[in-house]
Structure formats: C-alpha cells, structure tokens
Amino acid sequence: MPFKTNVSKYVKPSSLEDACEILKSDEKACAIAGGTAIFLFSVRGFFSQIDTFVDLEALDLHGIRKLPNSYEIGATTKLQDVLESELIRYDCLKSALLSIPREVRNMGTVGGEVYTAAPNFDLPVALMALNAMLKVTNGKNERTIKMDEFYSDVFSPNIERGFVIKAVQLPINELKTVYKRVSNTAHGFSLASLCVSLALEELVIKDITVAIGGSIDTPPTRLFDVEQELRGSQIDSSLLEKGAKKVKKSDFLKVSSDYTSSESYKRHLFAYLFKEALKEVVTKR
Ligand SMILES: Cc1cc2nc3c(=O)[nH]c(=O)nc-3n(C[C@H](O)[C@H](O)[C@H](O)COP(=O)(O)OP(=O)(O)OC[C@H]3O[C@@H](n4cnc5c(N)ncnc54)[C@H](O)[C@@H]3O)c2cc1C
C-alpha cells in the first residue's frame, strides 16, 4: 500500500537547528523518522496537508546511554534496539515492545511512537508508568516534559511547532513492573493495555503508578485516583478487588462503546488487567 500524502520535497538536515528551523517556518513540513506511523495514518488522510518531509536520521539522536540518575534513549533509536538493550531491563518495557510486530520494531523509533499520541500504542503506556521524561528541543533551547503531561489530546502532542523530541529519559530505580494488554486479534492493536510499576515494602505499597492505553477516548493516561487510593495499602485479595473496582470507575478511564466492544466490557477489561498485573508484579523479585 503506498503512502497517501502530497509530499513533493524531502530534506535531510545535518543539524538539529536546521531541522527545527524548517519545521517552524514551514507549516507544510513534518518530521519523519522510521515513517511507519506516517504510513499507517496517511491512509486516514492525516498527512494530506504536508508537502515536505524533514528526515531526522542524520541528526545523531540515536543510542542509549546511562546518566547518573537516568537512562537516556535518543529519539531516533529503533524500537528493536531498545528491546535488545543490555542497559535497560525494565520488564514492562520489554513486554510493551514485544507487542509491536518485529518488522515495525526494526523501522519504528521511540520518538515516532511517543509523538504520535495514539491511544492504542503500547510503548507510551509503559513509559508513563516508568515516570519517563521527554527532552524536547527547538535546536537552540531544550526543556524536559513529564511523559504524563505530554499529550493534550488524542493525536495531539503537547509540543510547539518547531520542537522535536530529542530523547526519552527513564529514572534508574528498582521498581517492579508489569505490562498487560488484550487485543482482538493476535497481532492487533491493543483493545486495553495497562502497566503497573510498584515499590513495595514487605507487602505494603510504598508507591504505585498505573497507566493505561488501548481503545480509549483519550491518549494513554495515568489513573491518578487509583494510585492515590492504593498508596500505603497492604496487598491482599481484598485490595485486588478494591483496586479493580476503583479502576473500573476511575475518573481518568474514559471509554465508550464502539465497533470493538461496549463501554462496560472495556471497563471490565481494565479491571481484569489491573488484577492480573498486580498479582504478577508482587511475585517479582
Ligand atoms: C503495521 C503496523 C503495526 C503496528 N503495530 C503496533 C503495535 O502493535 N503497538 C504499537 O505500539 N505500535 C504499533 N505500530 C506503530 C509503530 O510502532 C509506530 O508507527 C512507530 O513506532 C513510529 O515510529 P516512526 O519512527 O516510524 O515514526 P514516523 O512515522 O516517522 O513519525 C510518526 C510521527 O511522529 C513525528 N516524529 C517522529 N519522530 C519525531 C521526533 N523525534 N520529534 C518530533 N516528532 C517526531 C512525525 O512527524 C510523525 O508525525 C504499528 C505500526 C505499523 C505500521
């Protein structure tokens, strides 16, 4: 299937400053990394206004490194390279990446997966649960944005024209993490996905982060009310039930009935995934 765009110009700047300048000054220009999401959504007409692709490949934004308090993943790092990284071994990251077909992981980049702001992409959910920070730049200035503040709406990243994602930073810690998802077909996009990261003391929850994605009405989001309710609680079977009920009714879980399933079934799925994730995460060493 061909790309459905009206693109007639393709530029490959060698400096971030030049790339950002083009993206800022030309509203018909758009960044391209692996091109897989552009391919996917051009079919829906998302890129019909674009006439110039600005290739980010030559900008030296790839690679994974360890900083004093975080791991830094360059924006154009391929998803497969993150999966194979010896450095970053968070279980949830691995599970989320394994949900994405291998062919796509070989082409798709971390920056493209995050920027797209698709509700049913897997990696952003895991990154949110890991409290990731995004380093963004306009080629001159840099700032960091918390992953859970990066999306203003579905397909709407919270970033000004002329800025690109430079890197994703993950805090280094000993959190236990689990990523779970359900899809309608073996290789389908997620219908419901949920990631839990947990700091436990004995069986008491010192800290917990719960993020969700899938066939939801918002971009991937954290369930802050669920997290708040569970912090400080002892994990036992009654807590699983209590947590699952809270997930089902969370103010942050916005779902509606569509061709994939009914609203109530989606709520049920998230509650189920929460219980499964929590049961699994407490058994991790
Ligand atoms: C057949 C298929 C199946 C897929 N299945 C899954 C799946 O199961 N789970 C899942 O999570 N994902 C899935 N994906 C999505 C895939 O993982 C993403 O398309 C990919 O990660 C996007 O990266 P990219 O480099 O190709 O982005 P591109 O397509 O190059 O870019 C996507 C968007 O991000 C912008 N962009 C790219 N890099 C940057 C940057 N550094 N800064 C600012 N803007 C940037 C572009 O302008 C564009 O708007 C699938 C894709 C395909 C084609």
Automatic annotation (TrEMBL):
GO terms for molecular function: FAD binding; oxidoreductase activity. Residues 3-175 form the FAD-binding PCMH-type domain. SUPFAM superfamilies: CO dehydrogenase flavoprotein C-terminal domain-like (SSF55447), FAD-binding/transporter-associated domain-like (SSF56176). InterPro entries: CO_DH_flav_C (IPR005107), CO_DH_flav_C_dom_sf (IPR036683), Diverse_Substr_Oxidored (IPR051312), FAD-bd_PCMH (IPR016166), FAD-bd_PCMH-like_sf (IPR036318), FAD-bd_PCMH_sub1 (IPR016167), FAD-bd_PCMH_sub2 (IPR016169), Mopterin_DH_FAD-bd (IPR002346). Keywords: FAD, Flavoprotein, Oxidoreductase. It holds the Pfam family CO_deh_flav_C. The keyword Transferase does not apply. This is FAD-binding PCMH-type domain-containing protein. It comes from Candidatus Marsarchaeota G2 archaeon ECH_B_SAG-G06.
